[in-house]
Structures are given as C-alpha cells and as structure tokens.
Specification:
Shape: globular
Low-confidence stretches: 8-16
Number of helices: 12
Oligomer: single chain
Structural class: alpha+beta
Radius of gyration: 22 Å
Largest sheet: 5 strands, antiparallel
Helix content: 40-55%
C-alpha cells in the first residue's frame, strides 16, 4: 500500500498564544530538570538521571495540557471537584489545594490532544514506573533508556509550546542531538533484528512444509489476522489492513482513531449547517503480521520499517463494517476518562 499523506488536522495546540504565567513556570521547571538530567548523565550519576528526566517530562506534559485547557490537569473524581472548579474559574496552579494528575494520566490525555506519542506505550510505562519509584533505574543501561525516551518525548512536546530545542536544552543541545542520533541507530538495529527473525520463521516454515503446503499455510494465517486486533483494543486502538513490509502479506496497522470536522461550505465560503461531516484519522502506533509474526511498536519503529507513522486519513469502511465514527467519537470524548 502507498504511504499516506499526513492528515492536515487543526489540532488544539496549532495556535501559539503567549504563554501564561503558570505555563511559563512549568516550562522553566521542566527546563531545569532536563538540564540536570543531562548534567547527571555527563557525571555518570545514573540515579539522578532516572529522577530528573521523568520529572522534566511530567512538567512539560502538564505545560502542553495547560495550554490546551487548564482543567485537563484535574483528576476526574469527586474528591478533586474543588480543583476542577478552581482551575475552571481561575487558572492558577498556585491556588491552595489544587491537585493535578500524575504522569501516567498526563500521557493518556496527551494522546487525546496530540495523537499517538513517539515513544511506545510500554516504554512510557517504564518512565512512569521510574518516576513513581516502582522501578530502579540506577544502572547505565536503564538510565540511558529512560533518558533517550524522555528526550524523544521532549522533542515532540516542545513543538506545541513554541519552545526551541536550543532554548530548552541550552549548552546541552549538541549532546542531546548526539544521544538522539545514537538512539535512531539503535532503533534501526532493533527493527532490522525483528525483520531478520520474521524472515527466518518464514524460511523455516517453508523448509518444513514445502512450497505448495507453505502457500496454503500462509494464506490461512493471513485470514487469521483479525485475531491480532485483540491486543490493540486493550490499548484503545483500532486497526486497518496494511501490507507487511517483510513478507508482503496483509497485516494489521493499529492506532488511535480520531475525527476531523469538515464543515459544509456554501457559495460565499461561510460555514453551512450546524452538523459538520467528520473525517476519520488514524494515529499509527503498532503493526502486526500473523504470517511472519513481525511486530513493530511505536512511531519510531514504524517509520524505520517504511510504514505510516504520522496521523493520516482513513476510510471508515477500512475500520470494519460495524464501525460508526460518530458513535466512536462520542465514546472517545464523552465516555469515562
């Protein structure tokens, strides 16, 4: 299948108004912790890296959500109703008794605002666990993984805030670029290894069955591809058919499905009618093939394999004959958080 053109959606963060005092404080704190993480990395202080990098991500995540709407930082439960009212009526995190969300919930809300994030969900969970002290990351390897993932996320999150990487990282900018380049090389190696294993499985299967039986078996496996959607649905993802980059069979490309309003327009260019049409969009997050069992997770691995990695328009029919975009959007935005 051809690479789709990225959707030209107008997202809530596209406009860049002047930063509020609270947003400025969040960015300043996030900057401080990011630089401390990089200082600690240079000093081989891996314990501090594991503390400072996730803190920076949490603060910058909250700054992005704050820019969209301050109430996105409030937990949706009765004990936090006072915080909701406070931020809805006077947006200031310095108010007494304002309680905000943690990093895990911030990641979930960022996905709803920005689409899929560049770091896969399991690696974001690792950042959250390190941030909460549930996982120890004091070794060189673990600290490096956490730092690289945090830097990758920061590069994405600074854009809607209108903050340049040079301003944010300061004198650490060359080090950040070097680390991210090394990370890309590691991603390329990881994807290459996955493809080699997938090809090896196919070769072994053909050697065992013979060409004729192999063709029957692979056709049968391809027809079972919808069973792969079970894991995707567990993450709130939906899937469409997409050619496997390794074996050419039809696999499943999964991600978060959103919608873009496309209002009808009359002859003079003004909006026509109160009910716009909606265009379905997919933010790719993972790909799975039932034939060679190739599995790619996260935008970086998808891009490395030549698969779609950015938000793009999809036909509703591709999402299944029972899929209803209006009902899906109501559930996505009006259902339980």
């Amino acid at each position: 299948m051809p690479q789709p053109e990225p959707a030209t959606s107008a997202r809530a963060t596209d406009a860049l108004p002047l930063a509020s005092e609270t947003e400025t404080r969040l960015i300043a704190s996030g900057t401080k912790w990011a630089r401390e993480a990089l200082d600690a990395w240079a000093d081989d202080d891996y314990e501090k890296v594991a503390v400072a990098a996730p803190l920076s991500i949490e603060l910058i995540s909250k700054a992005v959500l704050w820019r969209v709407n301050p109430v996105l930082l409030v937990q949706l439960s009765e004990p936090h109703e006072n915080s909701l009212v406070a931020l809805a009526t006077k947006a200031d995190l310095a108010l007494n008794n304002v309680k905000t969300i943690g990093l895990q919930l911030a990641f979930g809300r960022l996905e709803k605002v920005l689409g899929d994030l560049p770091v896969a969900k399991d690696r974001r969970t690792r950042i959250v666990n390190v941030r909460n002290g549930a996982v120890h990351a004091g070794t060189t390897t673990e600290a490096r993984f956490v730092l690289l993932d945090c830097l990758t996320l920061l590069m994405d999150l600074l854009k809607p805030l209108g903050v340049s990487t040079e301003t944010f990282f300061g004198t650490h900018t060359p080090s950040v670029q070097t680390l991210l380049h090394e990370g890309k090389s590691e991603i390329a190696g990881r994807v290459a290894a996955k493809r080699v294993r997938a090809r090896s499985r196919l070769t072994q299967l053909e050697d065992t069955l013979g060409s004729e039986a192999f063709e029957v078996a692979t056709d049968s496996l391809q027809e079972q591809r919808w069973s792969l959607d079970t894991d995707a649905r567990a993450f709130g993802h939906l899937a469409i058919d997409w050619d496997c980059p390794e074996c050419g069979s039809i696999g499943r490309l999964a991600g978060r499905v959103d919608g873009r309003a496309e209002a009808d327009v009359d002859g003079d260019g003004s909006p026509f009618g109160p009910h716009p049409e909606w265009q379905a969009e997919l933010a790719p997050a993972e790909f799975s093939c039932a034939v060679c069992r190739l599995h790619l997770s996260g935008r970086q691995e998808l891009a490395q394999a030549g698969l779609p990695s950015q938000l793009f328009d999809v036909d509703e029919d591709a999402l299944g004959e029972d899929f209803d975009l209006d009902a899906h959007l109501l559930d996505l935005y009006m259902g339980d958080d």
